[in-house]
Amino acid sequence: xxxxxxxxxxxxxxxxxxxxxxxxxxxxxxxxxxxxxxxxxxxxxxxxxxxxxxxxxxxxxxxxxxxxxxxxxxxxxxxxxxxxxxxxxxxxxxxxxxxxxxxxxxxxxxxxxxxxxxxxxxxxxxxxxxxxxxxxxxxxxxxxxxxxxxxxxxxxxxxxxxxxxxxxxxxxxxxxxxxxxxxxxxxxxxxxxxxxxxxxxxxxxxxxxxxxxxxxxxxxxxxxxxxxxxxxxxxxxxxxxxxxxxxxxxxxxxxxxxxxxxxxxxxxxxxxxxxxxxxxxxxxxxxxxxxxxxxxxxxxxxxxxxxxxxxxxxxxxxxxxxxxxxxxxxxxxxxxxxxxxxxxxxxxxxxxxxxxxxxxxxxxxxxxxxxx
Length: 372
Fold this sequence. Notes:
Blueprint: H1 6-16, E1 29-32, E2 41-45, H2 50-58, E3 63-66, H3 83-93, E4 97-100, H4 103-107, H5 112-119, E5 123-144, H6 148-155, E6 170-178, E7 195-207, H7 211-221, E8 229-254, H8 255-265, E9 272-274, E10 280-290, H9 295-300, E11 305-309, H10 313-322, E12 325-328, H11 331-335, H12 338-353, E13 359-362
Parallel strand pairs: 2-3, 2-13, 3-4, 10-11, 11-12
Antiparallel strand pairs: 1-4, 5-7, 5-8, 6-7, 8-10, 9-12
Helix pairs in contact: 2-3, 6-7
């Protein structure tokens, strides 16, 4: 049996929601705890509240994974006299580390906004506001013919998607030459003599952020003592990352019908909407949590309605002026869905990684702070 450390799980979470995607004001990652501590039980929750931390301690969890960060700004003191300090001390005394994935998870492909889009019936959804594009690097490596498949397979996990295609590469035949010098231990050839070897020139597009790991994988599987490879920075841009999503419904609905459907799908006790109840809804923009700041983006992209939470009065008036319908489904209902999703993904990843001694549980203690 293998038991992961807190740092191992932080690494897994960073693959789900790369920290570099986070907004500049955000603070995702390890908030409290020892990176070297072993973890046999993980709890997933939306908020690191005192009640949630108590639940993690009671459930014998050594790690709490939440969406909202416990710590946003640098602290000048940690005192039990204030609520934040009390939660930090409670977690430390209870042996519970706290890790968060926030706007990086909102933005990430397969993250919270994609989960919400799927939940509310959107098809062909794409980011509503682009925040960044992946930087690409072309990796070129020269491989003996009979090792091509092994090296290529080791690099595919790091290759960039090209539209709806993955595992894209190119290979061409050639001849490599080299003279092993004194002290070399060549895979083939003789020290002091010129060798000519049939090789393949293998090319792949790699996301720049993954390049160090790709090179490490290359060096691990390549048979040569000193593999020849080149890294070319590209002007091409990779997959676009961004806040919110916009997509289409499979059928035309009225605003009132769609609002009622969302209330049921998101298990919201009630929701508010702005606009003509009989207006036709086909193109839907969304942003989990608080997303009224994306109102203009929704208008520019031709959305019929923006689904989000925490809409203020004047934002509702702005939507009216722009002719955009709004559905305020609440902050909690549009984000609590991350708990099940992250618990499932962590559980599956633990199995794949061989962490058979670590289980994942969903927090059941959370409720929406608002009452209707």
